[in-house]
Structures are given as structure tokens and as C-alpha cells.
Fold this sequence. Notes:
The protein is α+β, with helices and mostly antiparallel strands and about 290 residues long. Helices cover about 30% and strands about 30% of the residues. 4'-deoxy-4'-aminopyridoxal-5'-phosphate binds near residues 183 and 207.
Amino acid sequence: MKIYLNGKLVDKENAKVSVFDHGFLYGDGGFEGIRSYDSRVFRLKEHIDRLFETLHTLMIDPRMTKKEMIDAVVATLKANKIKDGYIRLVVSRGDGDLGLDPRKCFGKPNVIIIADKIVLYPVQLYQKGMEIITVPTVKNHPNALNPQLKSLNYLNNILAKMEASHCGYNEAIMLEENGYIAECTGDNVFIYKNGVLSTPHLGRLKGITCEAILELARKMKIKVSEGYMTRHELYNAKECFLTGTAAELIPVVKVDGRLIGDGRPGAVTRKLLDNFHQLTKKDGVKYDL
Ligand code: PMP
């Protein structure tokens, strides 16, 4: 396996960064999870735009243009001969001293791109739907660590994930501090009822998959709404599903023990998943192996 590390494609064994990297010491950096389908990188430009926004807020200069970043992702896929894969793009602040002051870092961020095979949820989960729960760990407040930042510090989400898995569930719904639904640990949340598809507007990562689903829904003439969502609305939705680069769109049939709709993946959910699969065949940056 070849890993992109600061402008070079190196063997996995040699893809190493220092223990003084502030990404390692403090979670100081940003990342993206991207997917390629049959030699097309889905919404690569949008992922790079989001990464650059994260880095802008963190005041990390990757010392590469967006175009160079896009080319580096494609080069990594080609070097590994991957047609259908998952790409992890990491930009950390780079080396510094043991204090957390970014001014004492050397201004040489580490840019790492890993292209690998994707590991999905089992097919049965897409057919039967998932059961999930809400968990006690609240979503980071936007004025603390804004959930729109895809930062290397994912502890908020990891704590919630641990709470879900401790109770025997794969995913957790996280609430904002005021009790409104925010998102899952690695996915956005949608509900459908009375002809309206809704997703929370704030307190969540602006998912690339979420945006694609909203676009598809509008094309299907389904009304969409982004706003506050309570647990009551979630429990009483007709359909519910989660979206994310890795999961794509996965139906949810039970939340906190409450059956959603008739307890089976809904018709709108299935149609959106179909349309999403169609979209992945034509959208994105094409490359040849
Ligand atoms: N929320 C969180 C917390 C995430 O980490 C992710 C990405 N795995 C998402 C939502 C979904 O975003 P995307 O569709 O861009 O993968």
C-alpha cells in the first residue's frame, strides 16, 4: 500500500510522522473521509472545500492549493489501483514542542492521504434497518468546538459511540445541550413524515451525503426542511435514516425502543438510496487506472 505523505507516495511501513506532531498530541488538525465509486471520487471538490474551511478556522495552512490537494487524492487512488474505495485525508498542524501553543509549531503541517477498501455495515442492516439510541454525552457547543469543523479531535463523538456500544447499539444519536437532535457520531439524521423530509440545521457537520440527499429530495419534489428536531418528532416519524460517506444512507427502524413507522425501511428512504446510488455513478472526479 502506498500512502501520500507530504508530496511523496511512500510505502505504508515508511509512512510515519513524529510523536511531536500536534495532531497526535492534541488532536490539532482536520480531516476528510471521501469515497470513490468505479473510478469516480464522489463530490471531491466539496470535500476539499470543507477541509479548507476547517483548516482556515484552525489557522493551519496546508501549503497546497485545492487543485493540488485534488490531484494528490487522485494520485493516491491510482498508485493503489483502487476503483471503489475510502480515502482518508488528514492535515495535522505538524511538529511543535510539548506545549499546546500553535505559534511554537514549525509551520510544517503533515498532509497524509490513505486510500483503502471500504468496510460497510452488513447488507442485512440496509434491508432490515438499524436500531439506535440517544445517549447522554451532548454534542459540543458550537462556541466550544463547532461540529461543523471536521477536526482531528473526535472525542465528543467517541464518547457517544462508547455509550451506544456499551448498550449494544451500533450508532448513537447525540443531542444538543438544549435537547434538540444534533446528529449521530459519524452520520447525519433525517426523518420523513407527511410529505416532508427534515434534518437538523445546526449543531451538526454539514455532511456531503446529507447535501446530496437534500438535492435528490428536491428533485423528487419532496419538501425539505432544516430546523430544530425533538426526540418526540423523531419517535413519531414515518421514516428515519442516517447519511454519511461510509454508510451512504442507512434506514433506522427503532429509536430508544420506539418503533419508527411500521418498523421497516420506508418507501421514501429506499427510493432515495436508489437515487443516491445512481448519483454516485455520474457525479465526481473521474480517473483512469
Ligand atoms: N456527522 C459526523 C460527526 C461525521 O463524522 C460525518 C462523516 N463521517 C457525517 C456527519 C457525515 O458527513 P459526510 O456525509 O460528509 O460523510
